[in-house]
């Protein structure tokens, strides 16, 4: 407040903090004042992260900030510094590999960014200097330069449009590179400027750079002949954003206001915050357990070593060096501890991170490739913005969905209207063409007719009160969308949805562009009744009336729509000089603003329409006399020029003008449901997910949509917590809220039979279904109750009620409230996984807030898609995305994680046990090559293939039986119980491997020539058993054997054998010790070794096989699988029966 | 699905089996009806193999003689702490023919040949006959790299230094006279160790290669005198040396010393009394070790080891038992499903 007053006192000067002043063309303004060039950044764009010089240190620093990489670096350094059992190569090589691959990838990406930067920065642009056109590099543009841009060029920086080659002072741009929208948007020049910009002398005052693409406030002072400067207001419609393309306009001139890193595009460059999946958290938890195991193993070994050494004095055959004798005892203990850490560090594998990353990255392609997600209408398939959350799709418990455009098509159709309380309904469906009845006369009289005058007034209002524009036929061709009936895009200028539709495409080449699809539906509705909007020409709106006469109205002001006011108005002056204000808006926001006498008659219609699921709008008008208009006009102009709080000031003026209106009627527009919306919702609910509808729409409409989608059923008891119910009973809202919450809580939570969480959630059987409805106002009361303890209590009550309801509807939500609800649920007890799905800019906040954000490539633009994690063309695709893809991804990655820990546990356990037999001397059991290659080569590919291809239940079955999704709910496959099972399995296997061979080696003469085997043979036998067992264990778990699985599993084993021969077959010149020379070949020449390998593999896998067989098949899938089995395998004696895949292709090209 | 979709859009995903996750796949199901017969078969096979192994192991004859001499009654007791060259002899009798070929092992217990530092204390390059490493042995041999006067030790390292140096001779008492049983020192080491991994420097006579080097401190004689009778069993390719250099996996181990393959003993040791004469050099008392001599023959599965046979029989029986259990469970489950 104080600041504002100060601003006013001192003028704009000290407002430098909040605004910047730009001297157009670098000329001092007013001309007599001295010109001090202000300092702004240049127009160089730097999106790259690295330079040639800092790449290595910076990249390495960033990579080692990851805790896993850092851990491996430490291990590596320990190996280098301390005398450790394994050479630094064993851990250095994998680490080097991982780091290099990542660095190369990031380097390549950065190189691409450099290239793109260079292309942008060195792009030649024309700059007008003192009337001459000069070509210079884009990077050299300074704030204040007048830049000339030609058709199809990209704007090099943020420009204020000064001049356009088009007569009407407009230009068209596309912002495909900014927000992905390819429609044309209209921008306007600053009004009344000199035609020769050379003589233009002006300054622009505008706000400091900020990232909101759709907000801009500024003021232009134009100095002419040293008079008082003319002032023009500047808004987003005057601002051309860097990155946008000029279309359909030969050339424009603009003055640079924001350059380089201060452009809105650059400011929007920040990445989204990283979302982490529940699986990743599980991995980290497991990692801690393994770290604990590792440390305790090392501690045990170190302790025992010194205990053992106490008893066994240094034997004569193995004397210590002098240096060792001199070393401090504690230092020795410490280095021993480190050595053991190094020896056992393979228990936490580097490769797991690589494999998980690769699995996620490669796995996400299956979503993009899925042709079921391909929508022929928009010619696009699904989009994956992040692959980190694939498995989270299988864990969703709460779905928050937007209504308009998500559940419904956002495809509006005019259904009926009511004028003065009389209902006007269109045709009875006879000979409908494109939804309109054309055979009939203009209006069907249903009951009685309103007066003709009122009728025409209403239709005129429909024709005038909108921001619809006629689409030019030239643009039409360029858009190349003739074959498509409609296409939805957003109008960037005002942030509202734009829809252009082609009306009767074969007959009339006429389309409309409007800020929301409702408007087009209304204009087309009016057309059906004989009033055709012909377009806007230089501030004159033309209407073709019933008598085929053209009426002209001068458009004075447009009071734009905004979601708070929920209405919009236009002021027009008719031919006769009358000044009229037409207003349309939501009933709740209109009724207080109109004279009360008409309200009741119309309210009835509106409410009836709303319960039928239509979107309703009320239309009102008022006459303005000259004084009233003059005042409104002055107020509006002043508010538009305000630099500070322009929005608020405008709002205040709008509210003042839009009062005391006369209600003429109401309209009903149908918003059709999305394809298969009801089936999708049913499937999702069947899968145990709770669907919450969060919408800005009004309760009745939203409720009817919920009924239509099957979210509310006939027997659902609705618990309503809205302003209406709060105002019942005549007590204060707070008290009423308190009572209602308690009452509902008693009903839904306390009296309901206890609901078991987890796999057997089956509230639908519980007998009574509850649906909960809350509106924005009540919600904010719940969330921000006056007293703190109350507020927490209300929140809990609210959550508990909601959690016991089958469906929850939140209506009248502001975008931020949507996010609040998501956050509330996300942080509630048990931290359920949430998913938000929406299509519009108003859903962005909840998409960003939820664990998984899904964008629908709908008609409300690309904002949601851009900010989402996954984008799909239609709501119905959500079913496959979650039930099939999500389920499979979760099962795959969960198995991957468990398997990885398991295989490394049974890899390292024998090495640990061996310490007990070698005097705790850190003698590795396996050769260094095996230690290194185990995770990289021998066992990595099968699990990767598994985690990409496994379908333990085939996709069709998953889609058919949505309840299968509940089997994996609540991170079922990564719970501690299963983790313990896998750990136990790993320990069992490790014990079997080690002691099996240990007993065999009680007599090391294993060949029939009497020769004996040494320690490396011991290790090699253990390792061979290990590799085979671990791989075959995976083979046992694989339910879906494609040729890739076969290739990779058998290939890995073959590779192991081949490698071992190769590794042992040559005296390697670079190796210090030829430990494995012919060890493997000798092993294979021993019958005993063969037999023990077979024995131990089988013994390890026996319990697993037994478990698979004895486990009672649960759920429908088991039965399903049984049914697919032909003849139940009675004739086969093989271990596994073969069923050919029954898949067929549903379509062929 | 729809006909008009046939016009290809660049955005349309490829309709291949792979991209649509519809690769033809084999979907095996481990059901009881497969597993039960499988288990029975495996069980039977395992029991069969197990019995064969068990019999093979049982038929292997074994004669173990502990000659540590920690008991004052033992003939080798005198040699235990003697620093002089000491010989002791033990007698034993073989009741039946000890079928040949008979293998003569020596065994050590509580001897940690698998210690890391001990095992790494050698220089493979030196042992490969590389003369450069004669003068400058790898530091991994410490503290057995240089002697007190900084002369390099060849072969260096703890492993070589501690080479087992007891020698044995076996004689058969025939009609009261001792008949020496010829012991064959060939073919006791791995073929690849003898022929490839270890090499003498290509210098003749071998002794010249060792100029300026010292023998390992514990060795009574230098490497080039390990077997002066046979050039191909001398130096680094001496088979006793090779056998020692292949480290044992466990602290109780045995190593092949000789084979009895000659003369009258081709078919084995006939029943009778034998005398084992031991030249007792190797100290084990300090680390509570034991020394023994093992005479054994081998079967197709190697030396005597009951473990494998028993394990096979146990696992085989487990398979059979499991299949019976499964049969019971499966029968019950089947009935349940039929309901």
TrEMBL record, chain A:
Binding-site residues, ATP: 402-404, 519, 561, 584, 615, 695-697, 812, 818, 842-843
Annotated SUPFAM superfamilies: Calcium ATPase, transduction domain A, Calcium ATPase, transmembrane domain M, HAD-like, Metal cation-transporting ATPase, ATP-binding domain N
One Gene Ontology term, aspect cellular component: early endosome
Sorted UniProt keywords: ATP-binding, Cell membrane, Endoplasmic reticulum, Endosome, Lipid transport, Magnesium, Membrane, Metal-binding, Nucleotide-binding, Phosphoprotein, Translocase, Transmembrane, Transmembrane helix, Transport
Membrane topology of this protein: Multi-pass membrane protein
P-type ATPase N-terminal domain sequence ranges: 37-91
The UniProt record lists the keyword Heme: no
Gene3D superfamilies in UniProt: Calcium-transporting ATPase, cytoplasmic domain N (3.40.1110.10), Calcium-transporting ATPase, cytoplasmic transduction domain A (2.70.150.10), HAD superfamily/HAD-like (3.40.50.1000)
Biological processes, Gene Ontology terms: phospholipid translocation
Positions contributing to Mg(2+) binding: 402, 404, 839, 843
Subcellular locations according to the entry: Cell membrane; Early endosome; Endoplasmic reticulum membrane; Membrane
Residues in P-type ATPase C-terminal domain copies: 865-1112
Co-factor requirement: Mg(2+)
Catalytic activity: ATP + H2O + phospholipidSide 1 = ADP + phosphate + phospholipidSide 2; a 1,2-diacyl-sn-glycero-3-phosphoethanolamine(out) + ATP + H2O = a 1,2-diacyl-sn-glycero-3-phosphoethanolamine(in) + ADP + phosphate + H(+); a 1,2-diacyl-sn-glycero-3-phospho-L-serine(out) + ATP + H2O = a 1,2-diacyl-sn-glycero-3-phospho-L-serine(in) + ADP + phosphate + H(+)
Main subcellular location of this protein, as a coarse class: membrane
Active site (catalytic residues): 402 (4-aspartylphosphate intermediate)
Enzyme class: translocase
TM segment ranges: 64-82, 285-308, 337-356, 929-949, 978-1001, 1016-1035, 1047-1068, 1088-1110
Pfam family of the protein (one): E1-E2_ATPase
P-type ATPase A domain boundaries: 122-263
The UniProt record lists the keyword Cell membrane: yes
EC number of the protein: 7.6.2.1
NCBIfam families hit by this protein: ATPase-Plipid (TIGR01652), ATPase_P-type (TIGR01494)
Family: Belongs to the cation transport ATPase (P-type) (TC 3.A.3) family. Type IV subfamily.
PANTHER family, alphabetized: PHOSPHOLIPID-TRANSPORTING ATPASE IG, PROBABLE PHOSPHOLIPID-TRANSPORTING ATPASE
Protein name as catalogued: Phospholipid-transporting ATPase
Species of the source: Xiphophorus maculatus (Southern platyfish)
Lineage: Eukaryota, Metazoa, Chordata, Craniata, Vertebrata
Automatic annotation (TrEMBL), chain B:
Subcellular location: Membrane
Keywords, in A-Z order: Membrane, Transmembrane, Transmembrane helix
Major location (coarse): membrane
Domain of life, per lineage: Eukaryota
GO process terms (BP): phospholipid translocation
Cellular component annotations (GO), alphabetically ordered: endoplasmic reticulum; Golgi apparatus; plasma membrane
Listed transmembrane segments: 29-55, 307-331
Any Pfam family hit: CDC50
Xref: InterPro entries: CDC50/LEM3_fam (IPR005045)
Family classification: Belongs to the CDC50/LEM3 family.
Protein name: Cell cycle control protein
Native source species: Xiphophorus maculatus (Southern platyfish)
């Amino acid at each position: 407040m104080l600041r504002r007053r100060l601003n006013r006192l001192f003028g704009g000067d000290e407002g430098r903090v909040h605004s910047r002043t730009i001297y157009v063309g670098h000329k001092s303004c007013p001309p007599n004042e001295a010109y001090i060039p202000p300092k702004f950044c240049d127009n160089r764009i730097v999106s790259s992260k690295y330079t040639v010089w800092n790449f290595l240190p910076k990249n390495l620093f960033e990579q080692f900030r990851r805790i896993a990489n850092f851990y491996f670096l430490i291990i590596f350094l320990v190996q280098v510094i301390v005398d450790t059992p394994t050479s630094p190569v064993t851990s250095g090589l994998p680490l080097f590999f991982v780091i290099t691959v990542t660095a190369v990838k990031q380097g390549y990406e950065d190189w691409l960014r450099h290239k793109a930067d260079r292309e942008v920065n060195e792009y030649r642009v024309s700059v007008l200097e003192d009337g001459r056109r000069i070509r210079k590099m884009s990077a050299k543009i300074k704030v204040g330069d007048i830049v000339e841009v030609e058709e199809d060029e990209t704007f090099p920086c943020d420009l204020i449009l000064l001049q356009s080659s088009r007569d009407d002072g407009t230009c068209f741009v596309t912002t495909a590179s900014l927000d992905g929208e390819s429609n044309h948007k209209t921008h306007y020049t600053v009004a009344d400027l000199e035609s020769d910009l050379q003589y233009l002398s002006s300054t622009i005052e505008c706000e400091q750079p900020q990232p909101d693409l759709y907000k801009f406030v500024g003021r232009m002072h134009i100095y002419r002949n040293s008079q008082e400067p003319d002032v023009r207001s500047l808004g987003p419609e005057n601002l051309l954003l860097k990155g946008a393309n000029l279309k359909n306009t030969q050339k424009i001139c603009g003055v640079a206001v924001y350059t380089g890193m201060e452009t809105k595009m650059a400011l929007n460059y920040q990445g989204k915050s990283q979302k982490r999946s529940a699986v990743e958290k599980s991995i980290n938890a497991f990692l801690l357990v393994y770290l604990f195991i590792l440390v305790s193993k090392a501690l045990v070994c170190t302790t025992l070593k010194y205990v053992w050494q106490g008893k066994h004095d240094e034997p004569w055959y193995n004397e210590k060096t002098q240096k060792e004798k001199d070393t401090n005892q504690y230092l020795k203990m410490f280095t021993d501890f480190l050595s053991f850490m190094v020896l056992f560090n393979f228990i936490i594998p580097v490769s797991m991170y690589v494999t998980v990353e690769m699995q996620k990255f490669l796995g996400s392609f299956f979503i993009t490739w899925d042709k079921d997600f391909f929508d022929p209408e928009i010619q696009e398939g699904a989009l994956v913005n992040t692959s980190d959350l694939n498995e989270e799709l299988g864990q969703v418990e709460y779905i928050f969905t937007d209504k308009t455009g998500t559940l419904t098509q956002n495809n509006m159709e005019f259904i009926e209207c009511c004028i003065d309380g009389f209902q006007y309904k269109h045709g009875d469906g006879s000979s409908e063409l494109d939804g309109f009845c054309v055979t009939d006369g203009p209006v069907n009289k249903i009951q009685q007719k309103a007066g003709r005058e009122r009728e025409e007034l209403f239709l005129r209002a429909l024709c005038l009160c909108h921001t619809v524009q006629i689409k030019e036929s030239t643009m039409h061709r360029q858009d190349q969308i003739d074959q498509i009936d409609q296409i939805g895009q957003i109008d960037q200028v005002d942030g509202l949805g734009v829809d252009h539709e082609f009306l009767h495409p074969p007959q009339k080449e006429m389309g409309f562009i409007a800020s929301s699809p409702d408007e087009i539906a209304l204009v087309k509705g009016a057309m059906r009744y004989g009033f055709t909007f012909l377009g806007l020409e230089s501030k004159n709106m033309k209407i073709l009336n019933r008598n085929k006469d053209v009426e002209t109205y001068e458009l004075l002001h447009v009071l734009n729509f905004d979601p708070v006011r929920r209405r919009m108005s236009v002021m027009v002056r008719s031919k006769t000089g009358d000044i009229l204000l037409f207003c349309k808006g939501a009933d709740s926001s209109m009724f207080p603003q109109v004279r009360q006498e008409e309200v009741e008659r119309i309210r009835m219609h509106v409410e009836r329409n709303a319960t039928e699921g239509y979107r309703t709008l009320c239309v009102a008008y008022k006459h303005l006399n000259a004084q009233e208009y003059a005042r409104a006009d002055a107020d509006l102009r002043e508010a538009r020029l305000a630099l500070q709080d322009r929005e608020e000031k405008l709002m205040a003026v709008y509210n003042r003008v839009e009062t005391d209106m006369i209600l003429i009627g109401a309209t009903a527009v149908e918003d059709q449901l999305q394809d298969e919306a009801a089936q999708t919702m049913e499937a999702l609910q069947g899968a145990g997910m709770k669907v919450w509808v969060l919408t800005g729409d009004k309760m009745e409409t939203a409720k009817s949509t919920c009924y239509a989608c099957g979210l509310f059923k006939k027997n659902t008891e609705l618990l309503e917590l809205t302003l209406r119910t709060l105002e019942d009973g005549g007590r204060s809202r707070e008290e009423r809220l308190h009572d209602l919450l308690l009452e509902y809580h008693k009903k839904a939570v306390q009296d309901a039979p206890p609901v078991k969480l987890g796999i057997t959630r089956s509230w639908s059987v519980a007998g009574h279904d509850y649906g909960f409805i809350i509106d924005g106002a009540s919600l904010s009361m719940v969330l921000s109750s006056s007293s703190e303890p109350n507020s927490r209590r209300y929140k809990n009550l609210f959550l508990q009620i909601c959690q016991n309801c089958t469906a929850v509807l939140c209506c009248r939500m502001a975008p931020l409230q949507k996010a609040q609800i998501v956050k509330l649920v996300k942080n509630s007890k048990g931290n359920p996984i949430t998913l938000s799905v929406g299509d519009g800019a108003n859903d962005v906040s909840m998409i960003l807030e939820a664990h998984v954000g899904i964008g629908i490539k709908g008609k409300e633009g690309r904002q949601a898609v851009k900010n989402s994690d996954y984008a799909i063309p239609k709501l119905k695709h959500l079913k496959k995305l979650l039930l099939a893809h999500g389920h499979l991804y979760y099962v795959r990655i969960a198995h991957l994680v468990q398997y990885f820990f398991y295989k490394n546990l049974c890899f390292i356990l024998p090495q640990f046990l061996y310490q007990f037999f070698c005097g705790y001397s850190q003698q590795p059991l396996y050769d260094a090559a095996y230690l290194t290659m185990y995770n990289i080569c021998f066992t990595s590919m099968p699990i990767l293939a598994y985690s990409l291809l496994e379908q333990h239940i085939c996709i069709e079955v998953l889609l058919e039986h949505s309840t299968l999704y509940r089997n994996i709910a609540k991170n079922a496959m990564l719970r501690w119980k299963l983790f313990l099972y896998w750990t136990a399995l790993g320990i069992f296997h490790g014990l079997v491997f080690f002691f099996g061979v240990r007993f065999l080696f009680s007599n090391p003469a294993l060949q029939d020539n009497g020769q004996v085997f040494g320690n490396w043979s011991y290790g090699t036998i253990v390792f061979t058993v290990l590799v085979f067992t671990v791989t075959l264990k995976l083979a046992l778990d694989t339910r879906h054997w494609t040729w890739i699985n076969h290739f990779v599993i058998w290939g890995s084993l073959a590779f192991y054998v081949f490698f071992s021969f190769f590794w042992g077959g040559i005296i390697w010149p670079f190796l210090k010790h030829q430990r494995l020379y012919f060890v493997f070949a000798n092993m294979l020449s021993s019958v005993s070794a063969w037999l023990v390998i077979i024995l131990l593999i089988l013994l390890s896998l026996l319990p697993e096989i037994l478990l698979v067989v004895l486990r009672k098949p649960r759920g429908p899938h088991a039965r399903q699988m049984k049914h697919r089995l032909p003849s139940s395998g009675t004739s086969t004696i093989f271990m596994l029966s073969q069923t050919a895949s029954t898949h067929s292709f549903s379509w062929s090209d | 699905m729809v006909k008009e979709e046939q016009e290809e859009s660049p955005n349309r995903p490829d309709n291949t089996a792979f991209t649509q996750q519809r690769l033809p796949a084999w979907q095996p199901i481990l059901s009881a009806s497969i597993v039960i017969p499988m288990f029975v078969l495996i069980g039977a096979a395992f029991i069969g193999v197990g019995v064969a192994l068990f019999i093979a192991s049982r038929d292997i004859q074994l004669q173990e003689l502990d000659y540590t001499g920690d008991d004052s009654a033992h003939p080798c007791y005198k040699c235990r702490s003697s620093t002089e060259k000491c010989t002791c002899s033990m007698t034993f009798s073989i009741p039946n023919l000890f079928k040949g070929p008979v293998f003569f092992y020596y065994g050590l217990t509580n001897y940690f040949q698998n210690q890391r530092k001990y095992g790494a204390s050698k220089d493979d390059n030196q042992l490969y006959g590389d003369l450069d490493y004669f003068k400058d042995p790898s530091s991994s041999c410490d503290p057995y790299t240089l002697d007190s006067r900084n002369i390099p030790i060849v072969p260096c390292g703890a492993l070589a230094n501690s080479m087992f140096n007891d020698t044995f001779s076996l004689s058969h008492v025939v009609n009261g006279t001792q008949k020496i049983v010829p012991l064959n020192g060939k073919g006791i080491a791995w073929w690849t160790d003898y022929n490839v991994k270890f090499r003498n420097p290509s210098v003749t006579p071998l002794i010249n290669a060792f100029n300026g080097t010292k023998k390992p401190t514990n060795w009574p004689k230098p490497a080039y005198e390990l077997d002066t009778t046979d050039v191909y069993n001398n130096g680094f390719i001496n088979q006793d040396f090779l056998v020692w250099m292949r480290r044992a996996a466990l602290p109780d181990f045995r190593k092949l010393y000789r084979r009895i393959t000659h003369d009258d003993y081709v078919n084995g040791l006939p029943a009778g009394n034998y005398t084992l004469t031991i030249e007792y050099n190797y100290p084990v008392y300090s680390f509570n070790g034991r020394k023994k001599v093992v005479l054994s023959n081998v079967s197709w599965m190697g030396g005597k080891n009951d473990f494998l046979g028993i394990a096979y029989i146990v696992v085989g029986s487990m398979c059979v038992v499991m299949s019976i259990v499964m049969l019971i469970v499966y029968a019950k489950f089947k009935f349940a499903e039929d309901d």
